[in-house]
Write a sequence for this structure.
């Protein structure tokens, strides 16, 4: 389902409200809310909205558990770090226990880090399958999501829940939840904003299947939302 908003501000507000709604529903149903955050620029305004009243007071932060969809394997205080971004814009500004925040620490030994994060997910959810309540995703101009980057082995991962990869031209590795792990989630939300994404959004949503990693995302036991702004939804681009 795709929902179109006038601009990035309204898109971010709607995404923040959906986050709050899913948080309350998850805590009511299971006593906790398990969410994976996205990196990149698009979710930044949404993270800020979550720190403002009334949503800040409505969200059961004490029962929230924060994971990531992907990470750039740089030190935690590096400006390219997805966890740093989320900490500064959101997590340091809401009453969430630090023990319930699980960054993808992969600056050292990315290969080992993927295995460690997978074990952490399995241990956290055992004996059940690692079903996150909510996963936030962005969409890259090349059709990638999380760090399922075209031309790497990451989109083809069928068994592991977390994989490491190197995007050609980058001097750092990345960690990413795999498509099988993302598709276990109860709710998956793509946030797509801006004219520069109009072309790829149309191809991913209406083009032939199997061309872009983002097309791998379709949770069989869950809901998939596309929250986009008018500029990204424009078909004349
Ligand atoms: C990352 C992100 C990545 C991002 C897309 C869209 O670490 O780079 O997780 O998947 O969501 O590249 O990025 P923008 O929102 O900046 O356009």
């Amino acid at each position: 389902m795709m929902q179109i908003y006038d601009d990035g501000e309204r898109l971010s507000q709607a995404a923040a409200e959906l986050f709050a709604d899913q948080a309350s529903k998850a805590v009511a149903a299971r006593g906790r809310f398990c969410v994976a955050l996205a990196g990149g620029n698009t979710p930044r305004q949404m993270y800020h909205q979550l720190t403002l009243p009334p949503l800040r007071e409505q969200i059961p932060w004490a029962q929230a558990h924060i994971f990531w969809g992907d990470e750039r394997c740089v030190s935690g205080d590096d400006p390219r770090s997805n966890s740093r971004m989320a900490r500064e814009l959101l997590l340091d500004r809401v009453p969430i226990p630090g023990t319930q925040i699980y960054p993808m620490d992969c600056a050292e030994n990315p290969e080992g880090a993927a295995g460690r994060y997978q074990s952490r997910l399995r241990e956290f959810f055992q004996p059940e399958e690692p079903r996150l309540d909510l996963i936030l995703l962005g969409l890259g101009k090349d059709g990638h999501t999380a760090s399922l980057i075209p031309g790497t082995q990451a989109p083809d991962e069928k068994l592991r829940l977390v994989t490491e990869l190197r995007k050609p031209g980058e001097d750092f590795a990345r960690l990413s939840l795999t498509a099988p792990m993302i598709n276990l989630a109860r709710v998956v939300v793509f946030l797509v904003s801006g004219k520069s994404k109009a072309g790829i959004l149309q191809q991913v949503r209406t083009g032939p299947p199997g061309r872009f990693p983002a097309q791998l995302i379709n949770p069989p036991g869950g809901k998939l939302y596309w929250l986009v702004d008018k500029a990204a939804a424009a078909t004349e681009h």
